[in-house]
Amino acid sequence: MDTPHANYDQPWKEALEDYLEPFLSFFFPNVHILVDWSRGYQSLDKELQQITPTATSGEREGDKLFQVWQKNGEEAYILIHIEVQSQEESVFPERMYIYHYRSFDIHKKVISLAILGDDRPSWRPHSYSYELGGSSVTFEFPIAKLLDYESQWETLKTSLNPLAFLVMAHLKTQASTGNAEEREQYKWELIQNLYERGYTENDIIKLFRLLDWMMTLPESLQQSFDTKLKDYQEERKMPILSNIERRAMETGFQQGLQTARREMLLEALNERFNPLPAEVIDRINQISDSETLKQLSKRERSIGSLAEFEQFLASIMPDN
Question: What is the pTM of this model?
Fold first, then answer.
């Protein structure tokens, strides 16, 4: 049984938003040590949109730009790129350079980092350069290759760093491409591992949401998986529920489920196409049928543009 299209970018983007400090500690400790974490950090999504090359705008859902403070009191900016698409091989280093110099033009002190989540062991771009007429430019950037962590699996299973768990989810999602039964088994093993790590309930809820978002299953397998998960949660006496799902249970299952699905759909769309047009928000808020919402959520994961989504929305809601 084939697996649905995996969603890598959005779970990684959300993880970066929530876990920037453990992210840098896990992948780039030399950068982590520079930051004064007591002053917090700020996500700059709108600024990132301004420096994104026009030709690729709307395609880079996994990229993030943060403002942090160095321990010496000065500001710094961290550009993080998540790369999982094999077709980007030739242009990725150039895109890293473009992002960097556009951000440098505004902020001056910029650190560019790359997470390579692709399945090609030998592909490790870490620099961009060109020379013409005696003038030359060389730009280098640190990388973390997720495939390298396969050899550290036992360490990942016991690490308390939430990024270790996300790396496991990414690798197993990738390994089960085209095999839904295998992905379901991996997903189940990861959920059990999630409970065994000693995380707080809040972290368990967040990480389960990212896992569930990334490791998509066909509807037939998802239903049986949900039943097994419900029984397991009851045994453990700690449900893995997002806040939206909790609210759904409190306000009545059917109505709450529809509300939850609308909110999750709007949240996912807003992550990709912010700002989301008011008319799209209004149309989605008018939907009361769970199956329609489910259809839209599935389509959202695979569309390439907001226009494509709006066209699909109009096709299933012709009277609205």
Answer: 0.71
